[in-house]
Amino acid sequence: MNNSHIPYEKIAKYIRQEVSASEKLEIESWVNSSVENSRLFDQLLNEWENIYDSPELFVQADKNKIWTNISSQIQTAIPKKLYTKRFLIKIAGVAAMLALIIGIASTFFVKSTIETVASSQSITTIETMLGQKMQMTLPDGSKVWLNSDSKLTYNGNFNNSDRIVNLEGEAFFNVSKNEQKKFIVKTSSVDVVVKGTSFDVSAYRDEKQISISLLEGKVAITDKNGKHMTDMKPNELAIISRQNLRYTLYKENAETYRAWVNDQLIFYNADIYEVTKKLERWYGINITLVNPDERQKYTFSVKAESLRELLELFNKITPIDYKINGKEVAIIRK
User: Fold this and answer.
1) Range from 21-35, 36-50, 161-175 carrying the lowest mean pLDDT
2) Is 95 helix (H, G, I), strand (E, B) or coil?
């Protein structure tokens, strides 16, 4: 197999379900063109599924450094006369999997840190970069989807003496039921207490409000001193002020607030600043607004659109000019 002809980047996009219809057909045609291609694809897919669903954590890596280390280790550890055809095929397969793993893993930033604290407990910290999301399984079997620019931490006692996580940013939780151990999501302002349920929490530090949307089950919201504030029922949305902890409950379709888990971003009657902030996280960009219309409200959704396609859609709602320079984007109202 000629490794130079293996479309790693497109395979990564295909696995992440980010390809266009034509790219999808191209990859499927490549996979079906030979037994070797089919086997390699199955290997890569298996590696990705193990990464995506595993509680094991990956550290963002320097690709060039990794490849240099791989190359030097192969050359120094294995004499040239031992380079059999079977060995080379095996190394090529390992290298191919590493290439895709590194490529996919670089779409989010996850780090695990061990910190020495008074009780000598380990602290696991998981972070995502702007424009990226990830899914993980916690030690108790609970599923967590972490949105862009977010951080989740928990200590070594998780699922032993407690089930407590700390959140900065946004996450959707599908919590495994355990009557003996409540699952607690701590934010900088309030805590969300559950036993087993599905809900979304958005608690970005640069936003004035925290939002909690309940899909199913029941949750209680308390302040940082443990004082009960309110209970929530399915399809309720709680909006809480960081400044004074005043809250309002709304009847909403909770599916709307977890749409980002399925790679869809929905805006309903949102102002330009809310739209801008979410688009920055969604695409991993920085947006500068010039002469924005603060009175305009926006209702639209984003799924597979590229940034340029999104801006063209935006232009139909409010006439704008725009400039894209790498990750820097300027939106100018006409």
Assistant:
1) 36-50
2) helix
Write the DSSP assignment of 219-276 as a string of letters.
EEEEETT--EEEEE-TTEEEEEETTT--EEEEE--HHHHTGGGGT-EEEEEE-HHHHH
For 42-74, the pLDDT digits (tens) are 777 765 654 444 433 333 334 444 444 444 444
pLDDT at 114 over 50: no
Q: Which helix (H) or strand (E) holds 298?
A: strand 298-302
pLDDT for 267-284, tens place per residue? 888 889 989 999 999 888
Q: Go through 168-199 and write b for each residue having 16 or more CB atoms within 10 A of its CB, e for each that does not.
A: bbbbbbbbbebeebebbbbbebbbbbbbbbbb
Q: Measured between alpha carbons, how far is 89 from 87 in angstroms, rounded to an integer?
A: 5
* Residue 268 token pair: 């309903």
Q: Which two tokens stand for residue 2?
A: 């000629």
Measure the CA–CA gap between 127 and 6, rounded to whole angstroms: 30
Number of CB atoms found within 10 A of residue 282's CB:
21
Long-range pairs of 269-275 with CB within 8 A, sequence gap ≥ 24: 269/297, 269/298, 269/299, 270/297, 270/298, 270/299, 271/296, 271/297, 271/298, 272/296, 272/298
